[in-house]
Design a protein that fits this description.
Rossmann fold, seven-stranded parallel β-sheet, Glycosyl transferases group 1
């Protein structure tokens, strides 16, 4: 199979989290512009368990108008190519193809360094292996300033796009169907995978981040209740729903405030749930580590400050709703699908950036971390 397209997209369809949600939104937005897209699905050694199923949302992209599935061994060309997730390519992919593009980017949905400072994957290896397997020489397109700062540590051996490539959202999927603080009980909450790392580490901090009480109700969709209880928290005080029990937009509209605080061992590369909440018109109280990504689109506090912050928001509901409306407009401008055409145009003209300015670590520290990473890999450990 061969062909000429407006853009090529390469991804492993077996991921189940935010990276596949971002892939789906990107492809859908480009298809919505009438672009002709060549889509190559690959299998990465990172997901080397045969039991990992394909994500139906990724497979459904093949049915979109303008999307042509590419088979392994295909020859295809386009002005732009998008390779999703460096982890896919850092561990190697099974497929080979002959792809050509004037500008190729590897969208970095994940930071290379873990929260403890160890190196989880080597982006230089990801770029080299993608080149060997597909013929594309990719720049890194970070999804956030957090990812950009970590990737800058590898410059000038890699080049990043001048602009970040954050996740794309269709505002129509995230309507405001109920105004926050509409006179009912004040309800706060969050949704996400039932992963203990998505919550603070200690019981008192978990309870403080989701402070159920006489004047505050808590709803959580996706909750590792047993693990949190073992840490000393009290999830029995919350209304806990299984992950996916309600459509996410419906769930978010039941909240007055969206809150999100997480484990010190987790680094959030982006934070899709935050954008979803703001699009649904919810004010957000977030872990301060997310300020680098979202800036003045949210408010930030430690878990201990959540209860007082919620009460301040509830004390002036009209002002809170007005601020949430203004933030929603800015979020649409920054992340909305209607902005994709302009983003693509900037990408075509992007001179790129190979500066180490703002790099998370210096050259000597990076060398030590890379040595440790490869020692662990040679010993059979997971990075």
């Amino acid at each position: 199979m061969s062909g000429t397209f407006d853009a090529l997209v390469v991804a492993d369809p077996r991921f189940s989290g935010g990276s596949t949600s971002a892939l789906v939104a990107d492809v859908a937005a480009m298809a919505g512009l009438g672009m002709r897209l060549g889509l190559l699905f690959v299998r990465s050694a990172y997901l080397d368990d045969a039991r990992d199923p394909v994500n139906p949302a990724a497979v459904a992209l093949c049915d979109l108008d303008g999307v042509t599935p590419l088979a392994p061994g295909a020859t295809a060309e386009a002005p732009l190519a998008f390779l999703h997730h460096p982890l896919v390519f850092a561990r190697g992919i099974e497929e080979r193809a002959h792809l050509t593009a004037s500008r190729s980017v590897m969208i970095a949905h994940h930071t290379p360094f873990r929260a403890d400072g160890s190196l989880e994957y080597d982006p230089l290896v990801a770029i080299r292996r993608a080149k060997a397997a597909l013929g594309l020489s990719a720049w890194i397109a970070p999804v956030s300033p957090t990812v950009r700062a970590q990737m800058a540590a590898f410059a000038p051996l890699l080049r990043q796009t001048g602009d970040d490539w954050p996740n794309i959202f269709d505002p129509a999927d995230w309507p405001v169907t109920r105004l926050p603080f509409d006179g009912g009980p004040v309800t706060i909450g969050r949704h996400g995978r039932a992963d203990p790392l998505k919550f603070p580490a200690a019981g008192p901090e978990i309870d403080a981040a989701l402070p159920a009480g006489p004047d505050i109700c808590v709803r959580v969709m996706g909750c590792p209740a047993e693990a949190l209880a073992a840490a000393g928290a009290h999830p029995e005080d919350w209304e806990v729903l299984p992950f996916g029990a309600e459509p996410v937009a419906d769930f978010l509209n039941t909240l007055d405030v969206f809150t999100y605080h997480y484990h010190p061992a987790l680094t959030e590369a982006f934070g899709r749930t935050v954008v979803e909440a703001t699009l649904c018109g919810r004010p957000c109280l977030l872990d301060p580590r997310l300020e680098a990504t979202f800036g003045d689109l949210a408010q930030y506090c430690a878990p201990a400050g959540v209860a007082d912050a919620v009460r301040r928001l509830a004390a002036d509901p009209a002002a809170t709703r007005l601020r949430a409306d203004a933030i929603r407009d800015r979020v649409i401008a920054r992340y909305g699908a209607e902005g994709v055409a302009a983003r693509l145009d900037r990408l075509r003209r992007d001179p790129g950036c190979a500066s180490r300015t703002g790099g998370a670590v210096g050259p000597l520290t990076l060398a030590r971390k890379m040595a440790g990473h490869w020692r662990r890999r040679l010993a059979g450990a997971d990075g």
